[in-house]
Amino acid sequence: MLHRCLHERVQSALADTPVVVLLGARQTGKTTLARSLVEDDPPRRYLTFDDAGVLAAAAADAAGFLDGLDGAVTLDEVQQVPELFPALKAAVDRDRRPGRFLLTGSTNVMALPKISQALVGRMEIVQLWPFSQGELEGRCTGLVERLLAGKAPSPAPSMDLEEVLQRIVRGGYPEVTTRAAASRRSAWFESYSTTILQRDVRDLANIDRLATMPRLLSLLAARATGLLNYAELSRSSGIPQSTLKRYLALLEATFLVQVVPAWSTNLSKRLVRSPKLILNDTGLLCHLLGMGSSRLEEDRGFLGSILENFVLMEIKKQISWLPSPATLYHFRTQGGLEVDALLEDTAGRVVGIEVKSSTTVGGRDFRGLKFLAESLGERFLGGVVLYTGEALIPFGRNLHAVPLATLWQSKGG
User: Fold this and answer.
1) Are 178 and 237 members of one domain?
2) Structural domain tally of the chain?
3) Which one of 77, 97, 127 terminates a domain?
């Protein structure tokens, strides 16, 4: 079993927080991670609401259900019992021992105001994504941690384009990473997306026109890493904007779709404020677009956006287990300067990452990063252009062109 880099963070949270909530899309490994924590701490009990009997007991009398649980407990798939959360609040207020409850959920129950208010100050939320590329190779360090520490990138082995494309179309869902045949991966993604759209979305809200959701998800896939434009999406899908926003919120709540907010700053340039749209996994993204590695290599227009999606999600995964928090943004001015990924730590220090599918880079590829470096001064920790070439090349103070694989192979030190 591959080690999950969030393991230590969840353990640390359980050591000082009454309720730890592990959230993520279905089939990303939440249950496996939760069970591994049960093994680490034998007194912890494990119950899942996928069990009809457990679900019925909690739904009938949530307070009584919790009162009957002695010691620490893991409750899996808690989104199925929203009435549990007020009872959890009362139970924690009576006994605030750390680590009492580890909850997992496949939909973002914290987006529901009553639930989030019930546990405010009593919980820590941890988000689990599909496997990162580092996790697939047995490592938890990466370029993000290094750059946020103010360190220059370290040399890492290069990777040919064919292997990069294979990693992109495979993605990181644990089940898919074990399937060698493209046809079998496609079959899994087809079943998976159908299940999410017909089960989890329906459970979240009674929506009309559920049949339009698969087409909407495909439309979103075709616009991955583009700016979110509700008016254009409404015209293309035939869905009114008000309904479209509701549908998109549901897709976000099931973790299939993510938005990367625009960075807000007091820099003098006028900035684009629209968020970027990405999917949670490039394997799923390529499936929705009908893109295999061969077609992706031929269609460089799609390769650029899909590679950017791949990098943005790898960054989100690495951020999730950092000891100190950081936030992912994108940066774009109305004059055309842009940086694909901008990371800001709690001290306001900034790292910039650009993504290029080409095997060569030039000074023009650093325009956005140089603008940030000049504008932010000491707040700017460094910037890199990730590309599919082989050499680590300095392009100025704290600016480097870096082979793509350095993103997950960069060592500390």
Assistant:
1) yes
2) 2
3) 127
Q: Which of 16-25, 196-205, 335-344 has the lowest mean pLDDT?
A: 196-205
pLDDT tens column, 135-175: 999 999 889 999 999 999 988 777 889 999 999 999 999 99
Rounded distance between C-alpha atoms, residue 178 and residue 5, angstroms: 19
pLDDT value of position 413? 47
Give dist(CA 211, CA 214) in Å, integer.
Answer: 7
Residue (of 378, 383, 405, 350) closest to 155 by Cα position: 405
Nearest to 314 by CA among 93, 114, 90, 164: 164
Find the helix packing angle between 161-170 and 282-289, rounded to 10°: 90
What percent of the chain lies above the pLDDT cut of 90?
73
Alpha helix (H) ranges present in 71-222?
A: 84-94, 113-118, 133-136, 143-148, 161-170, 174-177, 182-195, 201-204, 213-222
Sign of CA dihedral 53, 256, 369, 304: positive
Q: What is the CATH number of the domain that holds 25?
A: 3.40.50.300
Smallest CA-to-CA distance from 286 within 274, 299, 273 is with 299
The residues pairing with 47 across neighbouring beta strands, listed in sequence order, are 75
- 405 in a structural domain: yes
The verdict on 155 and 297 lying in the same domain is yes
Whole-angstrom Cα distance, residue 350 to residue 264? 12
Task: Read off the pLDDT of each residue in 381-405 and give the average, rounded to a whole number.
Answer: 95
Q: Is residue 100 part of a domain?
A: yes
What is this structure's pTM?
0.94
pLDDT tens sequence across 38-80: 776 667 899 999 999 999 999 999 999 999 998 899 999 998 8
Q: Edge to edge, what strands does the sheet with 393-394 contain?
A: 326-332, 338-345, 350-355, 380-387, 399-403, 393-394
The domain of 365 spans: 133-409
Contacts of 306 (CB under 8 A, 6+ apart): 168, 224, 282, 285, 286, 289, 291, 296
Does residue 311 register a pLDDT over 80?
A: yes
Q: How far is CA 365 from the centre of its chain?
A: 26
